[in-house]
Amino acid sequence: PGLYVIAVAFALEVSVGKTNTVMALNNSDVLLPCTFTTCIGFQDLVFTWYFNSTEMIYHGKIKSKSSEPFLVGRNPRVEFVGSTTGKDNNISIVLKNVEFSDAGKYTCHVKNPKEKNAEHNATIFLTVVQKMVETDNTVTLIIVGVVGGLIGLLILFMLIKRVVLFIIKKTQDGKKECLVSSSGNDNTENGLAGSKAEQKAPPKA
Questions:
Q1: Helix, strand, or coil here: 181?
Q2: Which of 9, 63, 151, 185 has the most CB atoms around it within 10 Å of its CB?
Q3: Do residues 39 and 9 lie in contact, with contact meaning Cβ atoms separated by under 8 Å?
Q4: What are the backbone dihedrals phi and psi of residue 35, each rounded to the nearest 5 degrees, phi first?
Q5: CA–CA distance, 2 with 36 (Å, rounded to integer)
Q6: Are 112 and 10 in contact (CB under 8 A)?
Q7: Statement: residue 52 has pLDDT above 50
């Protein structure tokens, strides 16, 4: 198991970022991102970009971490914009003057001889459109506003309810205090039943 963990740690990995889909306007330039990582470094590393798995559109090599990639072959409309001497091993490219026929799958493939010719790749799917469609967020904003308003009213109702219940409780407690106080009063002056005014003198012997 220990050897297996080491093998995984040393594995070459290639990434195209958080999403593997890109949309571009017709006749515009589009960035196709790609980076790679390796725990044991690289030497004479080879990277290649393919269109729809078969057509090579860029081919480059990197001697070591201290040197930038050099071009081996490329499509005239493809430009290398990455760098491998910094923190990230960036081997991104830009596809210029995008056409509708450029839509499809783009694969970034890396081979590292230092890792016993370990290979790995990542894929981007490019969509080409005539114009970008703006997303209408009006309905979403209305829904969010209504939901927020309802939540606000609910909170307000709960606060009012608590205040009313608090006032009612205080009022009831006050009435209880009055009743207790009244039951303990001396009613002699009022001449009420049970008062001292109605107490008869003891019979004479």
A1: helix
A2: 63
A3: yes
A4: -135, 160
A5: 25
A6: no
A7: yes
Q: What pairs with residue 125 in β-bridges? A: 21, 105
Report the 10 Å Cβ neighbour count for 77: 14
Q: Which domain holds residue 35?
A: 13-129
Residue 96, token pair as written in the block: 């210029």
Residue 97 lies in a domain: yes
> What's the CA gap between 96 and 156, in Å, rounded?
57
Q: Taking the CA atoms of the chain, what radius of gyration do you get in angstroms? A: 42
pLDDT tens digits, residue range 72-97? 999 999 999 999 988 889 999 999 99
In sequence order, the 6+-apart residues with CB closer than 8 A to the CB of 103 are 126, 127, 128
Mean residue pLDDT of the chain comes to: 83
- Whether the CA torsion 186, 187, 190, 196 is positive or negative: it is negative
Decide if 59 is inside a domain: yes
Amino acid in the structure at residue 17:
G
> How many domains is the chain built from?
1
pTM of the complete model: 0.61
- Are the CB atoms for 26 and 127 separated by under 8 Å? no
Identify the CATH number of the domain in which residue 55 sits.
2.60.40.10
**101 secondary structure, DSSP code:** G
102 lies in some domain? yes
